[in-house]
Amino acid sequence: MTSAHGTDASHRPRPGPAQYAPDGSRSRTAVSSALLLLVLVITMVWGALSRGVTEPAGADAPAEVFSAARATAAAARWSQSPPIGTPSNDRAHEDLTGQLTELGFEVRTHEAIGARAAARYAAAGYNRNLVATRPGRDPTGTVLLATHIDSVPAAPGAADAGIGLAVILETVRALGPDALRNDLVVLLVDGEENGLLGADAYVREESAALTEPVVVLNHEARGISGRPTVTRAAGPMHEVLPSMPRPEFESFSDALFAVIPNDTDFTVYRDAGWWGMDMAIIDGSWAYHTPQDDADHLDPGTLQHYGDLTLALTRDLGDRDLTELSGHADEHPVQTTVPWGIVGVPPLLVTVLGVAAPLALLTLLVTRRAHREVNVLGTMLGSAGAAVGIAGGIAAAVLLWGTAVKAEPAMVSRVVGEPFRSELFIAAELAAAGAVALLVWVLLRMIIGRAAIAIGAALLASVLFAALAVWSPALGGSMVLPAAIAAIGALLAALLPSPLTLATRIVALLPTGWLLGTQISSLAEFGIASAAGGIAGTALLALAAAAPLFVGRGAAQLQPRRRPRRLLPAVLVGVLAVGLTVGGSLHSQASPEPVQERVTAHVDGADGTTTWEVSGVTEWSAGLTDADATSNLPAPRGEVTALEGGRVRIAVHSPRQATRLDLDLTGGGLQDVTIDGTPWGEGQALTQLRIVGVRPGQHVVLEARIEGDPQIVLTDVTFDPAEAGGWTAPPEGVALVHPFVRVSSPVER
């Protein structure tokens, strides 16, 4: 009688032409499996620890090195990165101008209207960009250090984008007063938070004056700590990346930007044809755009590491012949970080390796089948079981996190949904995935052998990776390469003489361990909501691809094992996952960080009727929704004047001296809009328009062609909720994020 795994009860695996022989007892198999598991764990820990940050240098560090202490002192001279158009924004401009002038730069203010539109929505801003220049000795191009000045309401912006400002100031100080070979420009733009407006205005009006090629280093933050990484690159930057100390870059993060909602000024610079890199920190994202994005929470080690990267890159680019890079401009290697640095692999090779992995596994299946260890049916069951295990593991992680948030909403950021303390939740996600995987493993082992499960799981993962390698080598490169090495290694281990088998499996397993350590660490920096299921999916897919490496040659380990008691570990790991989730909730609730609340007052400009829109996490905010309130606030004003050719002029202003004005249209839209003569969403029919950076008393003039017969509502927006009726100050332990007072009034035509 033949079982599903393909081993006849009256036969044992037979030696083949490649000296294929059983490797002995179960104990020997257990020892090799334990050794492989130990190697995997050690490599994972090594990968995770490799992503640490640099020890911060003090104020007494040598003048030519970057010092986090000096950078912090420079940042302390302005109190915060404030919203565009506010008085505090003006004060930041003045201080930054003074510091850059002291450092020997020629500094000027570039005032222009930036405007960007998409999908019937457009934003425009009255921007004041700071441009500081230092001409090069013999320029072959321009090195441009960039970040933005503005933040969002109620967020000090110590990281977003204060860390970029601090890094740039300390970098140019460490460079010294002497000119580099190439032109050096510091570009500090406004209006980034409202749609990359300052960058748009500068590129449109001033980029032609720069010595080409232009290489930009853009500085961003979506958190307050963690390892600074290159998130995107443009042009031949693979030739420059090795100059960074302890560099990190994954091509998949660049490809990922095309499908996530976040954006930075780098998009504008890359669209302009500039080369360069987008750099960011993402750990501690619970503080992003909140009052906790302050100097007390910003990690000095992160600041030091960020500065070391920027200083090294600026020195390299500043003295390099940038024109020589043009010969590499058409090269687009898939890049990934390995222990010795960043390596680049041609996209075609990634695709070939991705396709080679399932072919190697099919060859392994044929080899194993020839020795009566597996059959096709057993392997298909293994693939089906792996699909259930991977999908179930991801679902369990998502369900566990979703339940925790629903039960304790006060423990997460109102901006990004991340918990204040995420470590236990990340462990819970991995435990939940592990519990499902163990459950499926034990159930499958009751009917098929270990080899069938392992090869089937690896085939499933490798086919998915092969499809990714064909569709987008950059997006799949970091996982395709370890999977291909594991598949080829498993095949070689089955063909090589027995003395080489274990060594081959160990070597082939190392890339998977490194991948798990670095990628789980990187995903963990997003917190948990951004990666819920992502950590579990990464771990399960990587382990599935490497599973055949854990299968030796002995017949004993290939038999089904009908032992229901082996379900107990899966149950215990599941209980652990639940316990970690409960512990994570308690740990986050014990955090000293205040509960975050969103509050917006909506005021009818006609009669002052006020309604409060709140997140309602605490009793205090929930009480605002019950307030029967009236506000004594003047309404914004708009006037429509007919022009020739079917166009109209719409003049709007805010008696409250608001820095932001919104226009919302129903029943039609505006086409071919200009704002003070600047085209705004040209060729599009716009139904939502936002204007930022408005100065006190300023009248904004729009011209457009009206589509349909729209009703136009004008809203001015300020950021102090105490202006509105029904307001009560929040108790201690509550922090406001994105507070708005919106006064609305119809515009009569």
UniProtKB/TrEMBL annotation:
Where is the chain membrane-spanning?
30-49, 340-365, 377-404, 424-444, 451-471, 477-495, 502-520, 526-546, 567-586
Q: Where does the Peptidase M28 domain start and stop, copy by copy? A: 129-313
A Pfam family found in this protein is: Peptidase_M28
* Record Gene3D superfamilies: Zn peptidases
Q: Where is this region: Disordered?
A: 1-25
Q: Which UniProt keywords apply?
A: Membrane, Transmembrane, Transmembrane helix
Where does the source fall among the domains of life? Bacteria
Instruction: Write down the InterPro entries for this protein, in alphabetical order.
Output: M28_fam, Peptidase_M28
Q: Which PANTHER family match?
A: METALLOPEPTIDASE M28 FAMILY MEMBER, PEPTIDASE M28 DOMAIN-CONTAINING PROTEIN
* Name listed for the protein in its UniProt record: M28 family peptidase
- Which lineage is the organism of this entry classified under, starting from the top rank? Bacteria, Bacillati, Actinomycetota, Actinomycetes, Micrococcales
